[in-house]
Amino acid sequence: MENQLGECSICNLRGLLSKIRVHMKEEHLIKDTIETVETEENSIEFEPVADDCIRWAPHEVLLLIRLVEENLDKFNAKIKKNVWIIIAEKISSITKKKFTHEQVDNKWKGMKKTYKRIKDENNRSGNSPVKWEFFNAMDSFMRKRPEITPIATCDTKEGLQLKQTMDENMQVTTQNTDDNGSSSFFLKRKRRNNEVQKRHYEKMARFDQFLKLYKQSLKLKAKKQ
């Protein structure tokens, strides 16, 4: 029983049965009775009884990740509810399954906790890497977020100092200026804007590709039925 494997039905995290039980109570706040079902791989899949929980299919989770990435800049606003409403409506429209903004928000909070915990665990030397099917999809853009990778600073003058503000990034030193005065500043700003635009196009291309594959999978599923 101690070595029995389990799978979280909320975020699909796999591990020892005892650890998955703790994970579901701490990360997803599921304290009600949990049913266990034996799977073909001899692992345990949990079915929460709580009414406010919704079962997410893997493709729905990936869709959520891509939509969060697409709207990442909008989360800088003080009121994030409107962003979750947009994402919930988009997921509902694509999957033909009703999702509320509360469900989507809670799902992402749980996934972010799981992602950060796994990342911290894998960064510790001597530990066997913890596998999670959504880790790479989230890590592709979450690893650079300040809440995931804190900015390193040092108080000593000769120490490491990586913390930089946007003002420092935009600052132009007198050595880089030319006869036209502020031309160097505008060149740097233009280059930076081009890089931001390029990343945006790449992100949208990945999302379009995901939607294309998702629609193809739905057509194949419909033909089989």
Attribute tags:
8% strand; 4 strands; Myb_DNA-bind_4; 3 domains; Myb/SANT-like DNA-binding domain-containing protein; 225 residues; 52% helix; 7 helices; globular
Summarize the structure.
Pfam families: Myb_DNA-bind_4. The chain is α+β, with helices and mostly antiparallel strands. About 50% of the residues lie in helices and about 10% in strands.
Low-pLDDT segments = 31-51, 153-166
Strand order of the largest sheet: 2-1-4-3
Q: Tally of extended strands?
A: 4
Q: Into how many domains do the coordinates divide?
A: 3
Q: What about the largest sheet?
A: 4 strands, mixed
Written as H for each helix and E for each strand, in order along the chain, the element string is EEHEEHHHHHH
Radius of gyration: 22 Å
User: Could you estimate the helical fraction of the residues in percent?
Assistant: 40-55%
Shape label: globular
Mean residue pLDDT = 72
Measured distance between first and last alpha carbons: 38 Å
Proportion of residues in extended strands: 5-15%
Q: Which secondary-structure class do the elements indicate?
A: alpha+beta
> How many distinct helices?
7
Region (Disordered): 173-192
Biased composition (Polar residues): 173-185
Organism: Hypothenemus hampei
InterPro entries: Myb_DNA-bind_4 (IPR044822)
